[in-house]
């Protein structure tokens, strides 16, 4: 694990394109590069695999069994101390691919696989497929050696081999993947990705085994959104770092709000499908108001309900003398509001067939509730809905800046209350969106260690001949030494969805559970946070010192609840 | 310097309003609270004051002498080791005020003054004026004791006593300030602020001395913008932390840009008058393009010039296969462009007297260059210029999101080049504004130490009977032990400006010097940064470990150049 000779000074991967030059690293980057990574004790010497009982599926096991005849029902694999029996002179040929959006720690998963191969298998070869799954299909890869991998240790981003959002779906695409597996004589492939990518990994495992190819496939749980998790996979990597980076900024904004005393900061946070990031940031920082999409959806709230909730608290705060505050909103908020979905559907229909006349006659085509909602929206949002469409002609919901929309709606509502005499202050809303800033941060110690163990463990699973499993590292509340390492049958995470008349396997996104410990803790405190100021400033992520090894609230609360 | 007993557990300042509760601090906040602050060795024991030669002014010394008959020409004061002769049993009554926008470290200036009084003067009293200079005029204050001050040690923000933007200007207002000084029997007042606030501090010093009041006034250099500095005051506090927080985010965005390979991130950074923050962040992170307002102004560039400069680099990069990048823009960019100033002036005139007709006949009233520029602006900006006005009916230049404007103009220009055949890629611009996120960050070790020394030194100057000086801590490239401590005549920083037919004293803002070392270094590297990727990710500010005590490039380069 010491740096190879060539990396002292300039590591020239520049010819390859945008490669890293450790010679221009910042002091913190350099200190991270040289930071040694601890391994769980079971990975420090030889091990045996202890298989669990046969697995089932998260739902509709019969259908999943039909879709995965070759890999369904596999037991989970747990690494336990033992004499192993794995041949150290067996050289392996292993590929790795990054799939989907960046998450801090991806480079450490690769480092973990690489180090496993270096340390436990003689003469192995490792390929990094470039630009995501497309790299597998086009057989576009880089051969990974120490010089290539080293500058990325403990560094953020996915730029070592880059990522992509393509999927391997059609029979032709599976054929291309097979050809690559055969051409490179791959013993194994590690797919680092989210729910879709891991489903895809399992389909590849199934396909390779069905075709009698030797190539095994192991998945790794990646997503800053935190919505890929289950009992065996307690968290997805990147969530910890991203939430900490966002929380640093939120804490700073809170201190600013309290110091100036005149702004309401509306902070939109990444996370379109689930609100885990928003919830975790709330637990870290104690904002005055936090909107959790899953709750809005469960309570069938309207946009007006959400606006009123925010406005009510602003009015109550003004009576206490506080005309400032911080409000967290998940990026996917409006996707959680049924009436908004209905309006969008109607708009897409109308825009496809009718002319939008300036006089507004077209609005008569909207159902009355949708019409009412449309009129309730700020003018800028109305225009955006009508004018900006994607290549399919659909309204671009993702482009709506929810935090700005909410500011405008709250402003309008407060104006009303001013006239009614129930509010007499000046409202100043400031908008923020924290997204790109967090997903490529330098991995926290937790993510760095977790990812290294995930990768090292994936190497061990492939070396043991396992396929169709997701690398699973557990007991995360304990010191790294005591973490458990193994693999969980990907099919056990799956259910089916009916699409175009066919069953499709899916790993359901883990949403914020309203009965779960993290939301319950938040719910028990939010009233106090709303009216008193209990702001916490987590500060910048520390890599050394007493605070460096803390993990996140969501994970700890969930682990505590399971214990 | 150890925490008072009451602060173990909950420090209840809640009754006062939005006070801090150390009991809800994050681990990093708590560790900062308990972080001990080093003092320059000259402040560790008794000292003498060595006076320098009489001072002059930065310009028009005769006029400054007339405006400050009682304090003009004072020598600078340097603290040197000595037997002192200051009575330790002399109790002082000292006030402190925070003026203007927040800057990390303000609380440590207050802690420094407080600790000086506690340790060197028996039975002293300290008052914190609330909400800025208005607190002086209205005699609104909190009495500062250990319990009150302790929870704010090494913490960001200005919320201990809050700040404000009022000025003490009229004879009535000076009278109010005198009344407060007399009522509280003040021996001294420390004004923590930027160029205007320090000018104001000097006017107060002059006024108090002119009226034979005993109250002395000492200023402290505060502003994240970094535009209050001179030989004796090498930097203003807060600049270091703010630039580091922004650079962390920029570094993350760079890693993201390189990983996805498809976005141009346009980052607007705080700093309306000068571009020091943008320049420092560029030196820390090596972006592909950086616009420095002072250079745009010196070269009399037009908005079209700036757009072309950006577009040219984007085209060159696309030929190298890089369709991504990071671009830094100072908040005040358009204030630096003469033609924009001209257009705004004409618009203000037209909007005040004419109707803006939809057909656009009103545009004929614009001079031809202004008309051309107006048509060059994106439609959204045109509308913003016409529709959004401040209470005086003027165009709200400050509200223009320069980064979004530039994205649109670059997009339009690239579209043209596509049609001409000189560009054939897809351009995706992403906008960011980093402002509030940085100005209330947890102070870096440098800012924490610098501010503590500034405050402790201000206490020493007041104890020595000095007035009209700005607290000056020097030799900042050396370890804290070796820092010099003293005071510089505020009048020596001043020039006059003619306003409404009268000479007004001003401390001129220190702009980015195009001949200065920081800009020269940037200029020598920017072509390489433009086409190669030399991104640096500074990572989160570290408080312990090998990287914790680094300062910023601007300061170090300027100190080196002076040496």
From TrEMBL, chains A, B:
EC number(s) recorded for this UniProt protein: 2.7.1.90
Catalytic activity, as annotated: beta-D-fructose 6-phosphate + diphosphate = beta-D-fructose 1,6-bisphosphate + phosphate + H(+)
Domain Phosphofructokinase: start-end pairs: 93-456
Binding site for diphosphate: 101
Free-text activity regulation comment from the record: Allosterically activated by fructose 2,6-bisphosphate.
GO biological process: fructose 6-phosphate metabolic process; photosynthesis; response to glucose
Domain of life (superkingdom): Eukaryota
Pathway note: Carbohydrate degradation; glycolysis; D-glyceraldehyde 3-phosphate and glycerone phosphate from D-glucose: step 3/4
Catalytic site: 225
PANTHER family assigned: PYROPHOSPHATE--FRUCTOSE 6-PHOSPHATE 1-PHOSPHOTRANSFERASE, PYROPHOSPHATE--FRUCTOSE 6-PHOSPHATE 1-PHOSPHOTRANSFERASE SUBUNIT BETA 2
Family indicated by similarity: Belongs to the phosphofructokinase type A (PFKA) family. PPi-dependent PFK group II subfamily. Clade 'Long' sub-subfamily.
Name of the protein this chain belongs to: Pyrophosphate--fructose 6-phosphate 1-phosphotransferase subunit beta
């Amino acid at each position: 694990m010491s740096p190879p000779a060539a990396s002292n000074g300039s590591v020239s991967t520049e010819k390859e394109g945008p490669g890293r030059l450790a010679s221009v690293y910042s002091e913190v980057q350099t200190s991270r590069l040289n930071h040694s990574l601890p391994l769980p004790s079971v990975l420090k010497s030889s091990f045996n695999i202890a298989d669990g009982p046969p697995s089932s599926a998260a739902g509709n096991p019969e259908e999943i069994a039909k879709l995965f005849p070759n890999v369904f029902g596999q037991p989970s694999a747990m690494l336990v101390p033992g004499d192993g029996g794995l041949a150290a002179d067996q050289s392996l040929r292993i590929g790795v691919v990054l799939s989907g959006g960046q998450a801090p720690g991806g480079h450490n998963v690769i480092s973990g696989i690489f180090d496993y191969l270096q340390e436990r298998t003689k003469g192995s070869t490792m390929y990094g497929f470039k630009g995501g799954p497309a790299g597998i299909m086009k057989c576009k890869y880089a051969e990974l050696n120490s010089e290539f991998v080293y500058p990325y240790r403990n560094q953020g981003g996915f730029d070592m081999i880059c990522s992509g959002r393509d999927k391997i779906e059609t029979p032709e695409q599976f054929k291309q993947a097979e050809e690559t597996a055969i051409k490179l004589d791959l013993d194994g492939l590690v797919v680092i990705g989210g729910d879709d990518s891991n489903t895809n990994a399992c389909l590849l495992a199934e396909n390779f085994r069905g075709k009698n190819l030797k190539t095994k496939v192991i998945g790794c749980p990646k997503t800053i959104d935190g919505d890929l998790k289950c009992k065996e996979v307690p968290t997805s990597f990147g969530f910890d770092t991203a939430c900490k980076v966002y929380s640093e900024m939120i804490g700073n904004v809170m201190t600013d709000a309290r110091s100036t005393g005149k702004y309401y900061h509306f902070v939109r946070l990444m996370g379109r499908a689930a609100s885990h990031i928003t919830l975790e940031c709330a637990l870290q920082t104690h904002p005055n108001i936090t909107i959790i999409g899953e709750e809005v959806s469960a309570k069938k709230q309207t946009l007006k309900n959400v606006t009123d909730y925010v406005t009510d608290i602003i009015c109550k705060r003004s009576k206490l003398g506080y005309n400032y505050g911080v409000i967290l909103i998940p990026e996917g908020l409006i996707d959680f509001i049924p009436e908004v979905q209905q309006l969008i559907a109607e708009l897409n229909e109308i825009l496809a067939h009718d002319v939008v006349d300036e006089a507004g006659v077209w609005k008569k085509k909207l159902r009355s509730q949708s019409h009412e909602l449309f009129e309730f929206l700020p003018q800028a949002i109305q225009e955006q809905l009508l004018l900006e469409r994607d290549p399919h002609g659909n309204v671009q919901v993702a482009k709506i800046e929810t935090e700005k929309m909410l500011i405008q709606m709250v402003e309008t509502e407060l104006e009303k209350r001013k006239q009614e005499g129930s509010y007499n202050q000046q409202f100043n809303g400031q908008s923020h969106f924290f997204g790109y800033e967090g997903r490529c941060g330098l991995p926290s110690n937790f993510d760095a260690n977790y990812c290294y163990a995930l990768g090292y463990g994936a190497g061990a699973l492939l070396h043991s001949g396992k396929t169709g499993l997701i690398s699973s590292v557990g007991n995360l509340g304990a010191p790294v030494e005591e973490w458990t390492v193994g693999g969980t049958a990907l099919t056990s995470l799956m259910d089916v969805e009916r699409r175009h008349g066919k069953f499709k396997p899916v790993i359901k996104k883990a949403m914020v559970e309203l009965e779960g410990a993290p939301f319950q803790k938040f719910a028990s405190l939010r009233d106090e946070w709303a009216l008193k100021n209990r702001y916490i400033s987590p500060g910048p992520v520390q890599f050394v010192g007493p605070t460096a090894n803390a993990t996140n609230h969501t994970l700890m609360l969930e682990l505590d609840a399971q214990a």
